[in-house]
Amino acid sequence: MKKITTLLLAILISFSFAQAPANYYDGTAGLTGYALKTKLNVIISNGALDLGYGSGTGGLWETYFTSDRDKYYENNNTILDMYSEKPNGPDAYEYKWGRSTIGGNQCGNGSNNEGSCYNREHSLPKSFFGGIDATPMANDGHFVIPTDYFVNNQRSNFPYGETNSATFTSTNGSKLGTCNFPGYNGTVFEPINEFKGDLARMQLFFITRYEDRLGEFTGFQTAGNPLDGTIDRGYKQWFINLLLKWSAQDPVSQKEIDRNNAVYARQKNRNPFIDRPEWITQIWTSTLSSAEVANFDKKISIYPNPVRNGELHLAGFGLNEVKNIQIYTLDGKLVQAVPFNQKSSSKVILKNREKGVYILKTENQSAKFIVE
């Protein structure tokens, strides 16, 4: 599929990056750590609706009508399945929204091969928290997503992870195999890089939205279940390390922003880590050693880009190592220098808002951005 151009994507992001209602996150100022997580739990739980799983119509099936349509790659309004989507195309198959009676491809059961139909995938497997009858978790559109029936079955209830010894690879490159990420050596499912951040922020949403329910899930603990039985950290440390890595390396996209808005319109709650991704590292801490992260891709990204409100947000693995930021014009003039502490904020307020192209530099990285 053809991916829309970087410039067009940047323009789209700048128009609609922040969509949380005014005052939605009131009470979070000054909070960090698990106190912030608990406050977010209250905010995103109050007024949240359980719309049901859906039987033929309604529930999640209806949510997908607005939350998971392809308006970003081929832009043809088909179902956007992160387990089969090939960002650089072409896709091996595509799904139309809805039941077969109206020409759609949704299903409860499909064939023993990719491309037969799409169903509902609990990105955090439902066996980890009690099954399909455990509500409202099993019906939550913020982490239950449409995926290919066959790939969903191959993923089964294995946690996300990274593997270099795949026993199964889907048509878009998602893999099943033995985990080689530090801290776990069981079987894992690894999505493609394009969607790792999306799925990481969904996992973090779960342990925040259901913080007050996490204690109920201890009876479902297995070696492969990343939930750790606590109500604060929520996941085992190896999984936290993985999610922090993925969320940093794959920053928030327009697709995520639109999906968050669409689910909010239905359920009346939001994923705060899409609205404010800097909260992730203000709540959780990676314990990976410098040796373990030495081969990770450390690349800082800036969003939204172009910048229109004078506010830069930074993402990227290794951002915690940055202590100082300098901003230069293209001809090398230093226009701003500020100390930086990711634990406090991943945001930089520009002093100079003249239109143009600028270069942001850290101790060992640089990135270009546009001010409009």
Characterise the protein shown here.
With 372 residues, the protein is α+β, with helices and mostly antiparallel strands. Helices cover 24% and strands 16% of the residues. The chain has nine helices and twelve strands. The strands form four sheets. It has a four-stranded antiparallel β-sheet with strand order 9-8-11-12, with no helix packed on it. The model is unreliable at 1-18 (pLDDT under 50).
Write a compact overview of the structure shown.
The chain is α+β, with helices and mostly antiparallel strands and 372 residues long. It is built from 9 helices and 12 strands.
Low-pLDDT runs: 1-18
What integer is the average pLDDT? 90
Radius of gyration: 20 Å
Number of helices: 9
Give the helix proportion (percent range): 10-25%
What's the shape?
globular
Largest sheet, described in full?
A: 4 strands, antiparallel
Q: Please tally the β strands and state the result.
A: 12
Order of helices and strands: HHHEEHEEEHHHHHEEEEEEE
| Helix/sheet category | alpha+beta
Distance between the termini: 30 Å
**Per DSSP, what share of the residues sits in E-state strands of 2 or more residues?**
15-25%
Strand arrangement, major sheet: 9-8-11-12
